[in-house]
Amino acid sequence: MEEIAYTVDATDRPIGRVATEAASILLGKHSTEFTRNNVAPVRVTVANSSKLKISEKKRSQKDYQRYSGYPGGLKIQSLQDLINKKGYEEVLRKAIYGMLPGNRLRAERMKRVEFTK
């Protein structure tokens, strides 16, 4: 089956709206041949990721947490810090990753996402 390319424009749109659209395409929900147990033959390009609409309140209050497994190993990073260190692409990557089912196909689906500034 031939791979289909989709482009999602992120200009002046909230993070969740862009991530939801991209995740839905990656899952293959738009296709008539949708099956849960296969990776859809699509490639998603998120254009203008640096032009996302993010409120100042969300920039300061949204936190990303990870835990090392050791006592005192909780790491907390704010949205603004993540943008400064890794850029808007990483914010969208985390949002899309969280919207995909947590199974063996998640990594394969994430390989099909590309970002442009």
Q: Which features would summarize this protein structure in a list?
A:
two-stranded antiparallel sheet; 3-stranded parallel β-sheet; alpha/beta; 21% strand; 117 residues; Ribosomal Protein L13p, Chain: A
List the helices and strands and how they pair.
Layout lengths: L3 E6 L5 H13 L14 E6 L8 H6 L1 E5 L6 E5 H8 L1 H12 L6 H5 L2 E3 L2
Parallel strand pairs: 1-2, 2-5
Antiparallel strand pairs: 3-4
Question: Can you tell me about this structure?
Answer:
The protein has 117 residues and is α/β, with parallel strands linked by helices. It has a domain at 4-54 and 87-115: Ribosomal Protein L13p, Chain: A. It has five helices and five strands; from the N terminus they run E-H-E-H-E-E-H-H-H-E. It has helices at 15-27, 56-61, 79-86, 88-99, 106-110, and strands at residues 4-9, 42-47, 63-67, 74-78, 113-115. The strands form two sheets. A three-stranded parallel sheet has the order 1-2-5, with helices on one face. It has a two-stranded antiparallel sheet with strand order 3-4. A hairpin with a 6-residue loop joins strand 3 and strand 4. Helix 1 (15-27) packs across helix 4 (88-99). The protein is globular and about 45 Å long. The mean pLDDT is 96.
